[in-house]
Design brief:
Blueprint: E1 9-12, H1 16-27, E2 32-35, H2 43-46, H3 63-69, H4 85-100, E3 104-105, E4 108-115, E5 131-137, E6 142-147, E7 149-152, E8 180-181, H5 190-196, E9 200-204, H6 208-221, E10 230-234, H7 253-267, E11 271-274, E12 279-284, E13 290-294, E14 305-308, H8 337-340, H9 355-358, E15 365-367, H10 381-395, H11 399-403, H12 425-428, H13 457-460
Parallel strand pairs: 1-2, 1-7, 2-3, 7-15, 8-14, 9-10, 9-14, 10-11
Antiparallel strand pairs: 4-5, 5-6, 12-13
Helix pairs in contact: 1-10, 6-7
C-alpha cells in the first residue's frame, strides 16, 4: 500500500509501539496523527509505573524514535539498566510525544473506525474511500477525522482476563469486585499495602506478572509491618520444570530472575501453590472473606484478597465496521497466529514478522504491538518496534524494506501459555481420575534458595510491555 494522501495515518494509542509507529511514519515522510485516550503519553504504562520491566533500556527504545529525539537534546538512558514503567513513560515516551507536538492528541478516545460512507457490508468502491475515525473527547464531545490508513496500537490493558477457568468470569466474581484486582499491586502505596499486610492473598496466574506479585508479597511478609502476610498461588496446571520460567538460562536475565523470585517465595513458605485448580466460583464466608471453588468441587480456605493475573484480551468493539481476519482462538491476524501460538512458542521462538502477517482483508488497517497478538502472552517491545518499521515502510510503498524483517529475540521459558500446557498435575503424571474431588493440597518446594539466587531490586520486579 502506498500512501501520499491529504489525510494523515491515524495511530491509535500513544504507548511505546504507537509512538514508534508515528516516528517511523515521520521518517518515511508521512504525516501521522496519534490519538491517545489518556492525558499523557504512555497513560496505561503509567498505571503500572511501580513495576520494573524485565527488558533493559537498550531493548525498550526504537531507532526511529531515537533519531527524532536527538535534536531535542534527549540523552538515552544507560542501556544495561532496567527501568520501571514510570521511568519508561517519563524518560522516553513523554519526551518522544513532546517532540511530535500537535501530531499527538490527548483525551481523544477512538469509538469507531470505518470507511467513509461504507459499512462493513458494502463492497462498491470500498478501497477508494478514506477511513473515518470517530473520537470521543474528554469534555464529552464527539469528532471525526479522515485517515489514509489506521494503525491500532491501543494494546490490551483495558480488558484483563477473568479468574474463571473457562474464560468467563467465575460465578460471584463480579459481586466480589471489592476484594479482587487484576493488576500487580503497588505495595508502596499505603492504602494498597494495608489491604495485603498480614492478610492472606490468592494470586491466580502463571506468568511474569504473577511472579512479580508473589515476589512483592514475599517482600511484604518479611517487612516490619508485614508479619502474617501469606500468598496462595493458584495454578491451572501442575508444577513442572517450566513453571518458574527460564531461570538462569533465560537470555533476559531479569525475566529469568522473576521465576526464581516466585520459586523462592514458595520455598521460603511465604506462598503455597495449589495446582490443577480452575476457578469456577468465588463465594463469601460469614466474615466477608472470599472462598475459591474449583470446577471439580474443591474449596480453598478463605482469603482476604484475590489478585487475578491471567492475561489480557484485545478490545475489538470499535473495529466492528472494519473487515478483520482474525484467528478464531487467539484473536490475532490469521497469518500471524501460527507464529505466536503459546502452545508452540515462547517469546524467544516467535518468527520474524511484519506487514504481510499483520495485514487484514481491509487494506490499510494494521493491529500492532500487544494488540496484534490477541490473547497470546508472548510479546516483547522489540517485536512491536520491528512490526511498525515494516508497516510504515509498506504504507510508504517501500515493499522491499517492508519485507526485510529481521529480529532475534531472547529465549525464555516464562512466556508459555495455556492450551497444551494447561493440564492438571494428576493428568501430567498419567494418573486416572476419581469420583470424589480430593482436598486441595498446597505444594511446598524443598529448601529455601540461597541469598545469592535472590534477584536484586533492579531485576526482580518484572512486568511486561503492554501496555
Amino acid at each position: 500500500m502506498k500512501t501520499r494522501s491529504a489525510h494523515p495515518v491515524v495511530v491509535i494509542g500513544a504507548g511505546p509501539v504507537g509512538l514508534a509507529a508515528a516516528a517511523h511514519l515521520i521518517d518515511q515522510g508521512i504525516e501521522p496523527l496519534v490519538l491517545e485516550a489518556g492525558q499523557t503519553a504512555g497513560a496505561t504504562v503509567r498505571e503500572w509505573s511501580h513495576v520494573r520491566l524485565f527488558s533493559p533500556w537498550g531493548e525498550l527504545t526504537d531507532p526511529a524514535a531515537e533519531k527524532l529525539l536527538a535534536p531535542s537534546g534527549w540523552t538515552a538512558p544507560t542501556k544495561e539498566r532496567y527501568p520501571s514503567g514510570g521511568e519508561w513513560a517519563e524518560q522516553y515516551l513523554q519526551p518522544l510525544a513532546d517532540v511530535m507536538g500537535s501530531k499527538v492528541r490527548y483525551g481523544a478516545r477512538v469509538s469507531g473506525v470505518s470507511r467513509t460512507g461504507r459499512d462493513r457490508v458494502v463492497d462498491a468502491d470500498r478501497e477508494g474511500q478514506p477511513f473515518v475515525v470517530h473520537i470521543s473527547t474528554a469534555d464529552g464531545g464527539e469528532e471525526r477525522v479522515l485517515a489514509s490508513a489506521v494503525i491500532d496500537a491501543s494494546g490490551t490493558w483495558t480488558i484483563p482476563s477473568p479468574a474463571g477457568g473457562s474464560g468467563l468470569p467465575a460465578l460471584g466474581e463480579r459481586a466480589a469486585a471489592d476484594r479482587i484486582t487484576y493488576r500487580v499491586p503497588d505495595l508502596k502505596d499505603p492504602t494498597v499495602r494495608t489491604r495485603h499486610a498480614g492478610k492472606r492473598t490468592a494470586v491466580i496466574g502463571s506468568g511474569a506478572s504473577a511472579f512479580t506479585a508473589l515476589a512483592y508479597l514475599a517482600d511484604l511478609a518479611t517487612s516490619d509491618n508485614g508479619a502474617g502476610t501469606k500468598a496462595l498461588w493458584i495454578l491451572r496446571r501442575g508444577i513442572s520444570g517450566s513453571t518458574f520460567g527460564g531461570g538462569e538460562a533465560d537470555q533476559l536475565p531479569a525475566r529469568g530472575a522473576l521465576g526464581l523470585a516466585a520459586k523462592a517465595a514458595v520455598e521460603a513458605g511465604h506462598a503455597d501453590a495449589v495446582t490443577g485448580f480452575r476457578t469456577e466460583a468465588i463465594e463469601r464466608d460469614g466474615e466477608g472473606r472470599l472462598v475459591l471453588v474449583a470446577d471439580d468441587g474443591r474449596r480453598l480456605e478463605p482469603v482476604d484478597e484475590v489478585i487475578v493475573l491471567t492475561g489480557f484480551r484485545p478490545d475489538l468493539s470499535f473495529l466492528s465496521e472494519i473487515r478483520l481476519g482474525l484467528d478464531e482462538r487467539l484473536q490475532a491476524a490469521i497469518d500471524l497466529a501460527p507464529l505466536i501460538d503459546p502452545n508452540q512458542h515462547s517469546c524467544g521462538t516467535v518468527h520474524p514478522h511484519g506487514h504481510r502477517e499483520l495485514s487484514h482483508p481491509e487494506d490499510g488497517v494494521y493491529l500492532v504491538g500487544m494488540k496484534s497478538y490477541g490473547r497470546a502472552p508472548t510479546f516483547l517491545a522489540m517485536t512491536g518496534y520491528e512490526q511498525v518499521r515494516s508497516v510504515a515502510a509498506a504504507i510508504a510503498g517501500d515493499i522491499e524494506a517492508a519485507d526485510r524483517v529481521e529480529l532475534t529475540l531472547p529465549e525464555t521459558g516464562v512466556c508459555g501459555g495455556a492450551g497444551l500446557f494447561d493440564t492438571p498435575e494428576a493428568e501430567q503424571a498419567g494418573q486416572g481420575g476419581c469420583c470424589a474431588a480430593p482436598e486441595p493440597q498446597p505444594v511446598r518446594l524443598g529448601a529455601a534458595t540461597s541469598a545469592a539466587q535472590a534477584p536484586t531490586e533492579e531485576a526482580a520486579t518484572g512486568g511486561c510491555c503492554r501496555s
